[in-house]
# Entry
Amino acid sequence: MSRTNTAQGRPSAAVGGGANRGGTDRGGANRWVVLVVLCVSLLLVALDATILHVAVPSLTEDLRPSSTALLWIVDAYPLVCASLLILFGTLGDRIGRRRVLLLGYALFGIASAVAALATEPSVLIGARALLGVGGAMIMPATLSILRTVFPDRRERATAIGVWTATAAIGAATGPVLGGFLVENYWWGSVFLINIPLMALILPLGRRLLPESRGAAGGPWDVLGALMAAAGILGCVLGIKRAGAGDPLLALPTAGPLLVGAALLVLFVRRQKRRPHPLIDIRLFSRAAFTTSVGCIVIAMLALVGLQLIAVQYLQLVIGLSPLETGLRLLPLTFAAMAAGATGSYTLRRVGPRRMVGWGFLLTASAVLLLTLMGQHDRPLLLTVGFVLLGFGLQTTLFSAYESMLSEAPPRSAGAAAAIGETSYQLGAGMGTAMLGSVMNAAYAPGLGGVPGVPAEASRAAANSLGEAYKVADQLGGTAGDALHHAARHSFVTGLHVTLFVSAALLIVGALMARRLPRIVECPVDQEEAFDAAVTPDAFMAPEGPDRDAEPRGTEPAGATGAGAPDAAPAGPAERAGASATAGSPEQPGTSERPGPSERTVSPEPPGSSERTVSPERSGTSERSGSPEASEPRVPATREAIEPAGSGRPAH
# Structure
């Protein structure tokens, strides 16, 4: 398989790192237009995740769903979306990411129309589940296409900054837009706005988006994809039930958790054994990749739990309307946009390790500042806290996503994107469950023994602050006032405890960030850099005859360590011909590597003298007689972007 190595400054980027099969390079000079299309796609999906929350009271009054049906109306979308991310992310690697994305557009538009016109709770639940399927097709495809359209790490960092800021905008704008639509129209309008946007973006995406694929060898593991989907569904369902207050050891909570965890363990074991796995488990042998995924989980765990509690605080304690609540959260959105816009520059200046660590510490500082909130409105304090929270958290998410994608080779872009999005969803679910449980544990004890309030009324009020207000209104008089005051005080106390727990989690994330690289590295050939960097004997698996990677447990041809005494340079005839002499005597069984005629290296931009290309990928006419011709070959050369203050100029 031939590859095109794209250096910085090349005007037209090859899509997919050589994996663009059967299609033209539509990304090239229009890659920033492609980014706009991808961001609009993500905006719709992020909006739909939060826009329904403010429409629940109106929807409940119209459709009269049962409590179980209402729970499924709200949860069907995130549950289905989270469980199918790996399935559709890896499917896009096989059949084409653009194809999966366009199908997701169409399904999302159809499901939005059904949801807007639903007259029965069951119809709305089914429509929300279809929206989850469409969202699972769209989310990993946008990130994997971004990964292939922007092969240069500097440009990709800028693109990821825009992408992550768009996700934050969608999540924060959802309640504002939903509140406006519900107040002026009806609850179905929160779905109806998707239809004209999808009708516009579907033809644009078909015309502008490039097609790309990843590893195409071997059949797609359908059973493995279903195991992953069922395992994630069980875990997320159990986590959500725990967050709703169900006992952790109860069968409806523990059952899905145990079954989901068992299926995921079996899925990982299956992937290790298969010659053509859905997900290359070797990705997790890279400390930077695993740490980035963990940082995404912790960041979302802190953000989503705090966001839900903040919404309750603003509405039930301060007394703001849904629209006013959404407007109060806008500073968080604007700060996230600023962090995304400056993320690429910051990453080059300070490096991934400092950027993620400082982002976590800034977020923890913002959370501790918000502990000064009380039972009365303090707009300036909230605005400053939300600005610091949005900037710090977005800085962390940006750098974690960028590091995760850069650690994965282009052939695994869809799988890596699916892992990142799944960790995002799992973090959100765990945040709701964990911080919600902490909040309930700190809130309920304050409602026991309120003077004049019966024990049964106190137990009902301990369920939530909204329920406490209803019970207080029913009691009336002095007892009702006492319960109302006690509930507000207990909620604020629980909020402070939850904020301290969240700050501790964020500090743990800052410590985890120490495993990330100190500097940004740009490998010339990321496929070979990945194959050479993983531990040779890690994740051993039987190999198929047509696997396009080198047999595990052996070094790639010509990949002897730099400075090894036996690493003699290969001559032109040796590189063009016999594969038996491609490696050192200690490396039997190495596979044949493409000759120089099968590879193209883009011209180097001016001033890039630090970048060197290994002799096996360079033309012999350029290297004959040069000092580099006598150096041992290495699988890939990395150009380090030094952080500020390191003594070397930052690029």
